[in-house]
Write a structure and sequence with these properties.
2 copies of one chain form a homodimer.
Chain A: H1 3-11, H2 17-35, E1 38-41, H3 43-55, E2 66-70, H4 97-104, E3 108-113, H5 141-148, E4 154-159, H6 165-171, E5 174-177, E6 197-202, H7 205-216, E7 231-234, H8 245-260, E8 264-267, H9 277-292, H10 294-299, H11 306-317, H12 321-341, E9 347-351, H13 367-375, E10 380-387, E11 393-399, H14 405-420
Parallel strand pairs in A: 2-3, 2-4, 7-8, 7-9
Antiparallel strand pairs in A: 1-3, 4-6, 5-6, 5-10, 9-11, 10-11
Chain lengths: 421, 421
């Protein structure tokens, strides 16, 4: 069941919060030994909370929906350890804004989902539930795996590069990265503040729209119907030749099917300068990351993975401030140019990954693709539309203008229906 | 002594970290019962740390400089309580990025300075050291009072409206608000993420430049000399008639003196649309604040002051999302228009406050002035240049283009020398 289904079923008395929570916990008990999606669970406490929700007179828009929270997002009742032994047992005294808002709406915080170390490259133990030999993608690994494996209807993640869109594509669920800046990130571990957003992993566009409004602290609005089929810009971008041929064929196929369904689909190029977004992302994220974690660098260097020490931290510690400020300027200029692109298009269509989830646990394929779209601050959805040559999911990505997240939802639902015909 | 003096004196063997720390602690012991600048102190631990610095071979750019930290900024060795009984005893497990960077540079974290409740309007117990019947200004009340009263050479604050520039003007110290976005704010309580910055309270422009570079995690650069006297735009703005006549006269006098010293000073108006920045600031800050503190609203409503519940929280909880997004757009448009203004000017000159610190403990005069400049994301310095009719300090504010903070420092030093002639 989707979150929307659960709310309806409880509202109509067809089930209870407790029954839904028990169903999730049973699925988790059966599958967690293989999938390793969770960093923390407390089944007894969850059942107690579910019963309290059943007894409560309140009926929030997320009433009774179990949700997972990436383990870089603070929760007052479970530890938040950032995927590192340095913060083992770290117990925040309050909820992050997004968690408090989801609970206020009646959601049931069921568990903390596994993150890679500091939401960076060093892999987590989580496996892809579609094939345990493969990565679920990172860094919101546990959030995507738990939703894909029917342990949870929705989970909260984050994205700084591709940490929501990538695992959504690899695991075969809907993934959403909101417009940068719209959600409060207090209580969420910062990786790179100029790029970080929340993320949502879910099983429908409607669920994404629901939990997005809840986490904004506003009254949820249903996904709108488009007044006419969308104008879609098909943007292969300068990373197209890094996309696997089989995935290129699937994205081309998506473009053709959307056109057949009535959309106007035109090839489009990114505005001039956008090829510099990859370097800009690398510069900004490394510079900021290395400063955010000064406490850990100075006091716990030996407990940081070699992957991180020799990678992003090395780059960031030695990064030039002038180059960092230049990169912020490049990003701002490109964002402004993209605004004008949306005079001609309602949505952009792009790959959601370079290919299927690879074998092994390295969770970070496709970085150049995500660097572009994340640095542009655009809202994005990955639709789990396809299956690749190895039987693994392959997503397609839709993007909209900054702050046009509702247009994105309407367009994504239209596209999903068109692709499923 | 300034921070720069302390570093030089210790470097030349004329004093020690311990002696400097003891001098600060003695001043604090003498004055704190009247001024109430500190939320937490641990003199014995500070002396131990100072001795360790004296024994250490390392000589960072802030070596031996005692500094204070506003009590909304996390420290691993002292509580961080956000000015609210709700978080009494809250002990973070790590330092905020800015604190870790200052310690890495050899700085001595001497104490947590008093903040108003959640860095919002509800007053703190801190008094203005120049006149104990008057407010020091908020919300970085303790940081400004401690520096003004020679308890500390520098202190870290924050600004979301006028929380650094205001108390700097009221207490008679140098205050600095950096370009929005340059410093990592992880470990700093968010008030309104789209507006929040760090702040610095200090006793010279050189000290501000030093601690700014330290908190950016870059090698400090000395304040540059201007190649020629600056081009200054004197911007009274649409709030000018709310400035007290005596302060208007002082700012006019500053403009005249800077012109006599060789600057080209021209009256300038804000670009069209900037009169909407006041509403935009109010909308953005209230909307974001009310969501950031959802946990406290839901779980500790009765422990929040009536000032905050009936003010910013009321406005934010009932705020419209559409109006919030519109306000973000207004702010972005105005920022872009201001960029062009700096083709003609190196610096802007404006009041730093509507007048002297008023009697009583309400710490928040001058809001409309700060709403403009803070929402524009410009870097700003308040120079403690004048004394008002009641013998209290009155600052003047200089501003520069976004990310031109080094130009601001060079111009502020030039202006300070010109004004002190």
């Amino acid at each position: 069941m989707t979150a929307t289904d659960i709310v309806a079923a409880i509202g109509e008395g067809r089930t209870t919060c407790e029954a839904v929570a028990r169903a999730c916990l049973e699925r988790i008990a059966a599958r967690e030994p293989d999938v390793h999606a969770f960093a923390h669970l407390d089944p007894d406490a969850s059942i107690t909370t579910a019963r309290a929700l059943d007894r409560s007179g309140a009926r929030g828009p997320l009433h009774g929906v179990p949700f997972g929270v990436k383990d870089i997002i603070d929760t007052f009742d479970m530890p938040t350890e950032w995927g590192t032994p340095i913060h083992k047992g770290r117990q925040p005294g309050r909820d992050a804004a997004c968690v408090a808002l989801a609970r206020k709406a009646g959601g049931l915080m069921l568990g903390k989902t596994v993150t890679t170390e500091f939401a960076n490259l060093h892999p987590s133990p989580t496996c892809n539930p579609r094939d345990l030999k493969r990565t679920p993608g990172g860094s919101s690994s546990g959030s995507a795996a738990a939703v894909a494996d029917f342990m949870l209807p929705v989970a909260i993640g984050t994205q700084t590069t591709g940490s929501t869109i990538r695992p959504a594509s690899f695991c075969g669920v809907f993934g959403y990265r909101p417009t940068w800046g719209e959600h409060r990130l207090h209580g969420v571990m910062e990786a790179s503040g100029s790029l970080d957003t929340l993320g949502v992993l879910a099983r429908s566009v409607e669920d994404i729209a629901l939990i997005r409004d809840v986490m904004l602290g506003i009254a949820p609005e249903p996904v709108a119907d488009l007044p006419r089929p969308p104008r879609i810009g098909f943007c292969r971008s300068h990373v197209w030749d890094q996309v696997e041929p089989s995935t290129r064929a699937l994205v081309e196929d998506a473009a053709a099917r959307l056109a057949r369904a009535g959309a106007s689909v035109h090839d489009m190029d990114l505005p001039p300068g956008c090829e510099r977004l990859n370097d800009a992302h690398r510069t900004i994220s490394s510079f900021e990351f290395a400063r955010t974690f000064t406490y850990e660098i100075e006091n716990h260097w030996d407990e940081i993975s070699e992957t991180l020490r020799g990678g992003r931290l090395h780059d960031g510690i030695h990064g030039s401030f002038e180059k960092y400020i230049e990169a912020l300027g490049i990003a701002e200029t490109c964002r402004r140019r993209l605004d004008a692109v949306f005079d001609s298009y309602d949505l952009l269509l792009a790959p959601a990954a370079f290919g299927e989830a690879p074998e092994g646990m390295f969770a970070f394929a496709g970085v150049p693709l995500y660097q572009i779209w994340t640095t542009l601050h655009l809202p994005a959805i990955s639709l789990p539309a396809f299956t690749g040559p190895n039987g693994m999911p392959v997503g397609v990505q839709l993007l909209a203008k900054r702050h046009a997240d509702r247009t994105l939802f309407a367009g994504a639902r239209w596209a999903w229906r068109a692709l499923m015909q």
